[in-house]
Amino acid sequence: MKRASSLIILAALLLSLLSACGGTAAKPTDSPKPTVPVATAKPAATEAVATEAAEVTQTGATEGPEGTAVITGTAVMTGTAVMTGTAATTGTEAPEGTAVMTGTAVMTGTAATTGTEAPEGTAATTGTEAPEGTAATTGTEAPEAAKAVKIPAFLATLTSKVSGLKLGTIKIASQTPLSGDQSALGIGIRNGTELAIAQMNIALKGTGVTFELAPFDDQAKPEVGSANAKNIVSDADILCVVGHLNSGVALAALPDYSNAKLVMISPANTSPKITESGYTNAFRVVGRDDVQGPIGARFASETLKATSVYILHDKTDYGQGVAEFFRKEAEKLGIKVLGFEGTQEKSDFSSILTPIQAANPDLIYFGGLYPQAGPLLRQARDRGITAKFLGPDGLDSPELAKLAGDALAGTYYTSVAAPVSQFPDAAQYASDYKAKYNGTAPPFSPQAFDSASFCGAAILQAAVNAKGKPTREQVVTALKGLPALAGITASYKFNAKGDPDPGTYYILAANTDPAQWDNNKLASRIEIAPPK
Amino acid sequence: MAAEAKAPIRRVSSQRTLAELLRVIFLPLGQLFVFTVGSAAVLGVIVVVLAFLLSRSDPKIFETAVAILPQVIIDGIVRGFLFATIALGYTMVYGVLEFINFAHGEIFMVGGFVGAGVAYLLNQWGVMSTMPALLFVIIAVLLGMTVSGLLAMGTERIAYRPLRNAPRLVPLISAIGMSLVLQDAVRMIATNTPLGFNARFETPDFGKAFQLASIPLGARSIPVLIGPKAVIFIVAALLMLLALNYLVNATRLGKAIRAVAQDRATASLMGINVNQIISLTFLIGGALGGAAGVLFGMNIGTVNPYMGFIPGIKAFTAAVLGGIGNITGAMVGGIVLGFLEAFVASYLSLFTGGAFSGASYADIAAFSILILILIFRPEGLLGEATTQKV
Fold this sequence. Notes:
The structure holds two protein chains of two kinds. By secondary structure, chain A is of the alpha/beta class.
């Protein structure tokens, strides 16, 4: 599913993929440092709408389903994706959807050619009822890249319509650990939400509606999360919750949200239970743990070109679960499974490695966590086993690099989250965050930004539909009915369960230096529809 | 005068001829060798026969089974020596006090951490890469032995001595508590130092693994490898066995230990300081555990505060299998258990066509066989052959 504008890939990512492919794709040469102009389009769009200063820009913007937004996106062949999104509005009463393209360096070897076809994703809405009037695509090479509308552009289509509704102040709550040892991530989510609200408020200036953040501290404890949830639902102004960091806390708070039919959009919860427990109000913007196995198998088959695999797992719910999903998908893809072994051994893996040495697989898949993977990997390399090594996000820790050191070469892991630097559209966000909070944006905070943006979009859409302040239930309905929108992390819409469709997963190549762990290179990025 | 004072001592040791002394010290090595070769041969034959029977359905099974056999035997020996070295500490203490020191696995773990700490410091000072590997091993092992030995002595003084006359279950509970305390105390210390919870055990470059042979399998050939660290481990374990045998069987201290083991009250009437001897027993047992911890940590490359628990349980099993209280028995039990685990882990999956994961069920299979052995030989493999304790 190569859809959505988010497929723009920085040249660096493209390069890493190409090299991972073993150079099967066209080789970009002499690529200059990639620039990230895409994200700059977002505030441009916002401001253009907010300040009516946005007059028609140079490229004659016309009305109509296409062309209101002008895109000059060009993926240049050398691997530099150069795109400049200019948002143009006609400056009339109804500031029109200004859309911004997003170029399209698709992750395949063919990416090299897309540059010649200036991607013309233009999302233009004529300000009519139907938000679906949106994507008019003329791009042939990557038609799907233009389908998703950027969230600010989408909001812009709604602003004129809500201005008469006198909505007043609407609160968006965040609930994450703001104290305790997980507070770094929790505060990042709160800040990401706050930033999104601030930017939406700039866009909504003069429309009589303001969003306000109501931050709550769940202390990463289920009981605290549940108690806070009762406070949240009793505040009638709160129409949406961004949270939680921990799946266990979210599951404890969900019954309360659910009784009040209050939308919860999680920026970080990957447990399948969040959306599998029958809550109609539970949404998330990240992928699911149970898809990591199949994603790994696809990566093994498509990128690593593995034909045989030896699967190990740690006999835990998580490790064995992910390994079994991997096996199923690997067999489907024609990868020969040479062995499937579970072990709780933490230190001496010799008797597990001997059969692997005899089986000589292309790839070793390990479903488990880094404390086991580190020594396993080192001992495998000491034995002269050169197979590539792949695992789920249980391997995602600089500790792995500390434990395995040089043995980590050729190791990949799948993840539902990538470092902020790996989101092509999040560069602007990263610098905004730094400017406001004086620190780098932690993981999951861009997802929180997107969650809050979706909250805003759903609330405004619901207000338009209801022609007044919407009920919480109407917000749930509106969120489900939103078209695919492009946030800063990915583009998707929500399926009936509340999972993002498509979910985006990342495969990263592990760095042998622990200090460089945050700069692990993206080896591949796979979008996949969530489980039905 | 001085010469006269020494004379009786000389006479005591000369009561045994040199040949007898050598026999006492080196006989265990022979026993160990016989058991190692014996169990390798028995298990090897079983594997070959099974593989042959199964090869009628899939001819590749026989080929693969035979090709990995030498490596499996080496894995088994290395694993066995791990259990054996830890089991020595269990058996020492049991022999003297008839008390199972469940904290011994943690003493082993502390040794590993001391080794990792020494390695970390040497690395920080930048002398690691230039120093000879053997010198590093000796420094790390000596420090590990010292710290672990003193720690074992300390736990005995704090947690066991006050309970010595209490019912037998009481010190056992105290030992389990000590084990938990040590785990979490080390965790607290480790996580507050640069070592971290999962501490990397840096080592100088020991060079490449020795390739003993290369066995063709299809178009490829499988090397039979033994790492230099594993060789050091085995050599050190054998030295530990020899030294312990010498100490117990051929010195005055050993005689005192044996006397305390036989009858504490009578030994004290003979002028032996029982408390001191018991302290020394813990010191020796702890030092052996610490040495094992350093060597093990070095061999696998990482240590963590909970790494002692499972090997501790298995080493205890090995000590019981060999005949608890018997030093050579502990070694033999460890070797046999190591072989069982390595064989089951490597072959179960192959022989069942992948239906059973060998590594998952290695413990079940190994312990079932253990139960069988103990049903038929409740006193353990060597429990009867040498009746003397410690």
